[in-house]
Amino acid sequence: MAEVSSEQIYLEYRSKVAAYISSHIRNREDAEDLVSEVFMKVHSSIDKFDENKASVSTWIYTITRNTVTDFLRRNRVSEELPEDAPSPLLTEESYINEETLSELADALTYLEDEERRIIALRYGSGRPLTEIADKLGISYGAVKIRHRKALSKLEELMKNKI
After folding, report:
1. From its phi and psi, is residue 126 left (phi > 0), alpha (psi between -120 and 50) or beta?
2. Where are the beta strands (DSSP E) in the chain?
3. Which of 16-30, 100-114, 134-148 has the least mean pLDDT?
4. Which terminus, N or C, of the chain has the lesser number of Cβ atoms within 10 Å?
C-alpha cells in the first residue's frame, strides 16, 4: 500500500482507535499502551495490507478489536482472582498451632499432585504464581485458578476436620 503511509493512518484513525479501546479498557495506562500496540501492528504490517480485501478502516478496526480481545484474555483471570488476596485458611491465627499443622499435612494428601505442588511452591518456597506457572509449564491464569481451588479444598477439609 504505497499511497497511504503509517503516519497518515495514525493521524486519521488515532482518536477512533483510542475511543474504541477506552470503551473496553478502564485503566487509562493500559488503554494508551494498547493504542500504541495497535499502531505498531499497523506499521509493521502495512506492506501486507490488501485494499482489494478490505478498506483501511476495516483493517484497522480488526487489528484494534483483536488487540483488545487478546489483552482481555490475558488479563481476565488476574482481574477475577487477585493473586494477593489472602486465604482465610492461611491467615487465621487458629491455624498456626502444632495440631493444626498436622491436620493441614493430612489435608494436603487429599489434593491432586499438581494442586499439592502449587501449594508447596507458593507457601513452602514462597514463589510467586507467575514463577510457578513457568516452572510447571502452564499458563498464569491456570495456576491462579488451580491455586484458588486447592486453597478452597484445604479450607473445606480443615473445617470438616478431614
Report:
1. left
2. none
3. 100-114
4. C
Residue 60 has pLDDT above 80, yes or no: yes
Torsion sign, CA atoms 69, 71, 74, 79? negative
Assigned C-alpha cell, 157: 477439609
- The helix, strand and coil proportions of the chain, stated in percent and rounded to the nearest 5, come to 75, 0, 25
pTM of the complete model beyond 0.85? no
Q: 132 is written with which cell numbers? A: 510457578
Residue 41 CA to residue 28 CA, distance in Å, equals 20
Distance CA 97, CA 99 (A): 6
For the chain, which residues make up each domain, given as ranges?
A: 6-80, 88-159
| CATH code of the domain occupying 6-80 | 1.10.1740.10
Helix or strand run (H / E) with residue 154: helix 140-159
Grid coordinates representing 34 are: 494498547
